[in-house]
Write a structure and sequence with these properties.
It is a single chain. The protein is α/β, with parallel strands linked by helices and 217 residues long. It folds into two domains: 92 residues, no CATH class; 90 residues, Rossmann fold (3-Layer(aba) Sandwich). Helices cover 46% and strands 7% of the residues. A four-stranded parallel β-sheet has the order 2-1-3-4, sandwiched between helices. Helix 6 links the parallel strand 3 and strand 4. The N and C termini lie far apart (62 Å).
């Protein structure tokens, strides 16, 4: 029997991963439903928390783990006050992307995993990874932009990756509507204490321009 790296039957592991993917998509759909009226009520927050409690197998998977923690804290006293509602609303918006644009854009990336505060980006000797579709140019063009400044590019985040750059539109190739495997992997690496920064294309482009100007001086 073919076994995975944990010694479990490969088919069982594969099916569990597919189930987790479907449940994450369901959670994102529930969050978007809550945001349709631009607010989140105590009843809606309680319903999301109940769903997460009933589906604990994904409660430790990003972004479910973030939502579970935020909602649990907000409802700890059994009441959702205005400050907690604003914080939870912001979290839901960040998980799902910009809901106001949902009608015109099929896939919009989440900005929940972006680093805050923003890191200073350096290029020489650093390793970059890119995900999504970029306004700045084709994948080859954005990769050439960093290699011209002395950086290297890898296809997927690894233990040695320094930066993951995500676009603001998203990609139809992503496993979920708001994020893909590269973002999931980068978040996991960061939670494990690895020095990987997740930044948006807009900020990355500003840093590229800044360093390109310095290079010509």
């Amino acid at each position: 029997m073919l076994l995975d790296e944990d010694g479990q039957p490969f088919l069982r592991t594969f099916n569990a991963a597919r189930l987790n993917d479907r449940m994450i998509d369901e959670l994102i759909g529930l969050c978007r439903g809550v945001l349709l009226d631009g607010s989140v009520s105590e009843l809606e927050a309680s319903a999301l928390l109940q769903w997460l409690d009933e589906n604990r197998e994904i409660a430790n998977h990003w972004p479910a783990n973030v939502l579970y923690k935020r909602i649990s804290l907000a409802l700890e006293d059994g009441h959702l006050d205005p400050d907690e509602e604003r914080d939870l609303l912001e979290t839901l918006v960040r998980v799902t992307g910009n809901p106001q644009s949902a009608a015109s854009i099929k896939s919009r990336s989440t900005n929940l995993p972006l680093c805050s505060p923003l890191p200073e980006i350096s290029f020489a000797g650093k390793i970059f990874c890119f995900t999504g579709k970029f306004i700045s140019g084709s994948r080859t063009e954005v990769q050439n932009a960093v290699t011209s400044l002395g950086a290297r590019v890898k296809g997927s985040p690894t233990l040695k990756t320094n930066y993951l750059v995500i676009d603001s539109i998203g990609s139809s190739d992503w496993i979920h509507s708001t994020h893909g495997r590269k973002i999931e992997k980068a978040v996991t690496l960061r939670e494990e204490g690895r020095s990987i920064y997740i930044v948006a294309e807009e900020y990355w482009a500003e840093q590229i321009s800044k360093h390109a100007k310095q290079k010509t001086l």
